[in-house]
Amino acid sequence: MLKKTHSIRKQTEIKVIFKLGKTCKTKGLLLKVKDNNLKKYRMTVVVGSKVFPKAVNRNKVKRQVKAFFLEEIKKNDQQKDFIFVALPEIKELNTQELKLSVKKLISQV
């Protein structure tokens, strides 16, 4: 489970990361990364209602991405802000492919 101190909640912070962050992309996921001056990582997952109209599906994707992210970030501790954005192609991915996408994105950073 992701702690509150490790999540990005403010819209202004998200906009800054989108504007100044580095972009990486795989099938189904887009990652924006920006260095922060904190001694910890922070992250959030954005899944639009156009990608999944039902909130149940959006929340499921968010939970899965957060879980896979936590597995990978424990291996290499980084002091960065991460924003994962779900793309429409994410519907075609199964759980294993989604896990590989998250792993690939984090290794590119």
Mean pLDDT: 93
- Major β-sheet profile: 4 strands, mixed
Enumerate the spans where pLDDT stays under 50 for 5 or more consecutive residues.
none
* Helix fraction bin: 40-55%
Number of helices: 3
Please give a structural write-up.
With 109 residues, the chain is an alpha+beta fold. The chain has one domain: Ribosomal Protein S5, domain 2. The chain has three helices and four strands; from the N terminus they run H-E-E-E-H-E-H. Strands 1-2-4-3 form a four-stranded mixed beta sheet, with helices on both faces. The radius of gyration is 13 Å and the shape is globular. The model has no long low-confidence stretch (mean pLDDT 93).
List the helices and strands and how they pair.
Blueprint: H1 11-20, E1 22-26, E2 29-35, E3 42-46, H2 55-75, E4 80-86, H3 95-108
Parallel strand pairs: 3-4
Antiparallel strand pairs: 1-2, 2-4
Helix pairs in contact: 2-3
How would you describe this structure in keywords?
109 residues; alpha+beta; Ribosomal Protein S5, domain 2; 4-stranded mixed beta sheet; 22% strand; globular
Quick take:
With 109 residues, the chain is of the alpha+beta class.
